[in-house]
Amino acid sequence: MRIIDVSSAWSLANRDSGPTRQVVPSPLATGHHGSYFSEVVTIIRPLVGTWSLLLACLVTIMALASVQKVVFGLIAFAIFWVLAVFPAVPFLPIGRTAGSLLGAMLMVLFQVITPDEAYDTIDLPILGLLFGTMVVSTYLERADMFKYIGKLLSWKSRGAKDLLCRICVISAILSALFTNDTSCVVLTEFILKIARQHNLPPTPFLLALASSANIGSSATPIGNPQNLVIAVQSKISFGDFLIGILPAMVAGVAANAIILLIMFWKLLSVHKDEEDAGASVVEEEYDSHRFSPATMSHFSSLNSQEWNSHLEAVSVQNSPQVQILRNRSIANASEINGVSGSNFDSARISSVSRDGTTGAASLTKEETGPSNSSAAVDTLIAPSERKSKFILKWKRVLWKSCVYIITVGMLVALLLGLNMSWTAITAALALIVLDFKDARPCLEKVSYSLLIFFCGMFITVDGLNKTGIPSALWDIMEPYSHVDRASGIAILAIVILVLSNLASNVPTVLLLGGRVAASAAAISNADEKKAWLILAWASTISGNLSLLGSAANLIVCEQAIRAPNLPYTLTFWSHLKFGLPSTIIVTAIGLTLIR
Where are the transmembrane segments (predicted)? Predict the structure, then answer.
């Protein structure tokens, strides 16, 4: 079956079925194909309006792929989608990662794509960039960077409204540099504690964290997974990406904060004396809240810094040099205090017979002898311990400084336009070598399940593309989604917002990216870049629409529920009441500023 031109189908949909109306023939319906298309038009003509458009779409789809491939491809993608959006679905609770592999396997098993095509769809540069940034985040956590960020939140806080604005700004910046997931993992429990100290409901602060993290992550290619995909596929440099979206991100964060203040003004209006207790929470928070930014999971024990310090202190106490000093000091103390048993006993008995109090005093001195001996030991050992602790302290300061320098160097290299994947991997390996320890503990914190999820998703989405359905749907929308006019940008943004909340943002980018860019490239090269940036902006901000819109929202929700001694449930409806207006307003503002 051949393809019916979509513009002709749309023309049919907008014409009535009166006998005097004529259908404009497709350009394909010329020459020897005329009789064929005349028959098709005769059949379709009574089905005017929406039904004719839907029928034309079905004909187009069937022309692009076989019925078997379309049906089986839809089944495989539907299984992937259900498990990606609802990982704990009762009839198959295997999770997102296994769900993506299942979808990929079904695409190959149903012969929608071949095994070789499946391997070719896996984008190694994206996986390398994800791996490198996760390793760098792990070492930054060990270097206490997130602890300092927590202190910054409560430093000289001027009230609840000031705290909310700080959360918006800091989470946005942190997300742009180290992904939105990391920002939410780092700050959720701390925000719960600071809100409890302020005697405030946590909802506005948790919403500020999740929404600002999503908005902030839009500014850089390393801010979120969909931006990684866009940056690699579009070959837009880190600097151009940042310059293109940064104004929209700044305006979006400001607009989001204003919306939060308007919606929760009364809840944020508290007395000043209730708001001065927040600074004391920071140390307690980071002593109790242990996490891995890469895996978004908690430790049940000490974090790496405290554990290393503890082991170092134990090793100093048990070192051979300290034991030798301790033995020598004890021997010297015994010699100093050693007297003959008979002389000591006779002197003590004589003293007791003369004056009970004097004897008691002598006995007291005797009993306190061991403590004096212990004090002598401590005095003798203290210089050695102080020297060891001083050396260890400065070694750690030097190591932390190097971690920060390497991280800044990575960001500078990205801004200079170096290959993003290898830049991140190089920074990660530099930190591993600099640590001069077995890298297994840090590498175990990398979220390999996320990398596997991406592999399965690449294959599943490519299989759906092979069915021809995405192309057919885009052919319908493409004439009305040109980025060189305001109406086209608005329609494109709406399509991205809806599809991102239905199919998730990364699959949406994989499905639409090449098509949107090709359509814009037909206009100009500048419009092609703008189309990629619009896709990045809209697909990221769409995550704020509902609680299920992004992984960052779910992380905040789960972290809040599981917080020790401070559990709190962020409901779907409380998020939607804020997320719907915020998403629409922030998206609209940003679209006017993207260049």
Answer: 43-64, 70-91, 98-114, 126-142, 241-265, 397-414, 448-469, 489-512, 532-556, 576-594
